[in-house]
Amino acid sequence: MINFQNIEKSFGEQLVLKSINLEIKKGELMVLLGASGSGKTTMLRMINGLENPDFGSIQIANKRLENRPLLELRKEIGYVIQKVGLFPHYSVYDNVATILRLKNEKEQVVKEKVEKWLDKIGLRVSVYGRKFPAELSGGEAQRIGLARALVAKPKIILLDEPFSALDPISRLKIRNEFREIQKEEKLTAVMVTHDVLEAVSMADRICLLAHGEIQQVGTPQEIIYKPKNQSVKEFVKGDQFQAALASVSLREIIPFLKADALENQDLDSSVLDYLQEADSTYHAIVLNAFYKWKEELL
Ligand SMILES: Nc1ncnc2c1ncn2[C@@H]1O[C@H](COP(=O)(O)OP(=O)(O)OP(=O)(O)O)[C@@H](O)[C@H]1O
């Protein structure tokens, strides 16, 4: 779906991306993971033409990017960034509606879609529709940014640290919600983060970058259990590594947690219920992971 071929990029004297070759498949969630300054955002911005490579080419659905009008391209691509960039003088409703109105959708259709997507990201239109961005918390604003991108029905969604303003519980919730929406809509998603935990708990595959070079591309399990080189090993060691391990194990159980368990913080009984029912051979590891994760979360 998205293909980086021999990409190279410099800013002045600084070589920021070197020999980047990466294929992102249709419908997958690819996480670009790496330390600050490793080139993640630059790669992401190349997908919607906000940066151009010096060498190499990017193809989307087998079409080279440089041959496509930018406006047409961006209609297919949703872009969600850390600083949400909502229009400050528009209400939440109007912020989400903007793109539909630009497409000349009828107001009745606009209303249905805005309500649907606000509802999907957990904010009711009756409560939030009339608020202005300055009246929202950071996390709410990030959710609205997500709804605004999703309402346009993009084929591809690019996310740059999209959940960073959220507290741990809301973060976990919205990660899961977004993941469900992404699968349901068969969206091809590329997400930038430097948070190992976020990467392993959400990604189909992770592309690990260091100093502008791809170190490894693989599933979270491959990255964690089969690091290809020293650089990958270093990235996933220590506390972050432990948390990531916990999260990988938890991917097994989170879908089985009772829906309200997170809200009620009645996690222990919910997890134990699951473990009893599931007859998992990894009880000890999952349970250990769970307690570590809970310590961190609560
Ligand atoms: N427009 C620009 N002009 C000059 N240098 C830039 C520009 N954009 C990025 N850079 C440099 O390129 C390097 C990679 O930046 P990039 O934003 O891609 O990194 P990143 O991995 O996303 O980092 P972070 O996690 O801190 O956001 C950095 O050293 C940055 O200073």
From TrEMBL:
Pfam families xrefs: ABC_tran
Q: Which GO terms describe its biological process?
A: quaternary ammonium group transport
Q: TM spans, by residue?
A: none
SUPFAM superfamilies cross-referenced by the UniProt entry: P-loop containing nucleoside triphosphate hydrolases (SSF52540)
- ABC transporter domain: residues covered: 2-236
On whether Plastid is a keyword of this UniProt record, the answer is no
Q: Which UniProt keywords apply?
A: ATP-binding, Nucleotide-binding, Transport
Q: Does the keyword Repeat apply?
A: no
Q: Can you name one GO molecular function term for this protein?
A: ATP binding
- Could you tell me the superkingdom of the organism this chain comes from? Bacteria
The name on file for this protein is Osmoprotectant transport system ATP-binding protein
| Phylogenetic classification of the source organism | Bacteria, Pseudomonadati, Bacteroidota, Cytophagia, Cytophagales
